[in-house]
Amino acid sequence: MSKQSFTLTNNQTKQSYEYPILEGTRGPSVLDLRSFFKDSGLFTYDPGYTSTASCTSTVTFIDGAKGELRYRGVPIETLATEHSYMETCYLLLTGELPDKDTLQDFDLEIRHRAFLHEGLRHLFAAFPDNAHPMATLSAAVTALSTFYDDHKSCQDDAGYQEMARRIISKIPTIAAFSYRHSLGIPFIQPDIDLGFTKNFLTMMRAYPGGKMHLCATGHEEIKEVEVRALDTIFTLHADHEQNASTTVVRGVASTGAHPYVAISSGISALWGRAHGGANESVIAQLELIGSVDKVEAFIERAKDPDDDFRLMGFGHRVYKNFDPRAKILKGLQDELRVELNLNTELMAIARKIEEIALNDDYFISRNLYPNIDFYTGIILTALQIPKSMFTPIFVIGRTVGWITQWIEFKKDETSKIARPRQLYRGK
Ligand code: ACO
User: Can you give the residue range of the structural domain that contains 30?
Assistant: First the structure.
């Protein structure tokens, strides 16, 4: 019997089966159960995939116990503090950080591909004025596939890169148009003189034809600190290995559908408040709490097993010590408080929640710490971005991760259609 194996014994039949243990470069080893059903006639049962590795990947590594996150081997702290979101995109897509010239070419290509086919613009008119930007975004990305049908059959590196760069470029434009449609105000076309993040903020805020910007405190220019903060948020969201929405993207990829339809499905999966929708729910919850003196009562509700109220922005399936992205954002939040002179009631409520929950046995014993969504909600509010755009901003950051994982799935010769089985207990 090999040491690199695991033996399972059926206690009814006394029959034993030996399975190989696969070693990764880091992280827990994996028991290869691919032939288990053929061997034993039994299925494995793992709702929510809490013990299941669904694929082999070289993109992102997470050590949840240590609070470690790396894209292509590079620590998230390095990327967030020393590199831009554009560099991070290039790293995820190719496996290497770009040199200066390569970055310039990549950045220019992304700027030039940001325009939408005029036909796609008419789609927005079909939605009601108050349509949530996530719904419009998902529909528009599906519609985008009709303009680039050939991407369905791309299968070489050049084809993959063109398809991926196109969707990364166009997602901010679609998101900004979805937002402006929800307000009933004219769309602002991309500006190739502006970098990725500033261009997105401009498409959201600018008055048509002018330099003025829509913003709660008046008509201000976009500040560099805002661009830096949003760029960091994009980087922190860029990939997160086999999370719920990425699993959906790979699942759709497995059927052979168009890559942009897979991205659209990822957008829909992200919208839920147990996933990317949590950032919008965090602020809705802070508004519901309303004042610092009410925080304790809401914390008690979150702890009550008979109340399904949960503290939004707390807890994570993988991080059981701290979320490294949240740690970076907490630092950014403190910086912004000084630079943008923010001391709102909402921030005071958030600080009080953090303070109580981090010292409360209920949260400590269950390893419930603030996650990335707790701080993005607060920071995006500080940047005067409306709540309905929080999850679309998550989408903009995550698109590169989804498409990188889509390409990895396509290139993997062991990939199969996603088709789990069930424990039937019906009539
Ligand atoms: N508030 C109060 N209690 C919580 C919370 C919370 N936010 N999260 C988990 N718990 C409790 C559960 O009630 C459960 O308690 P019990 O053992 O007494 O029954 C225990 O902690 C474990 O919770 P599970 O739901 O089993 O944990 P799971 O890993 O399945 O869920 C999840 C993780 C979905 C993120 C959960 O913590 C949650 O709902 N958090 C709030 C929503 C949120 O912030 N989502 C964003 C996640 S990050 C992202 O997607 C980018």
Answer: 1-44
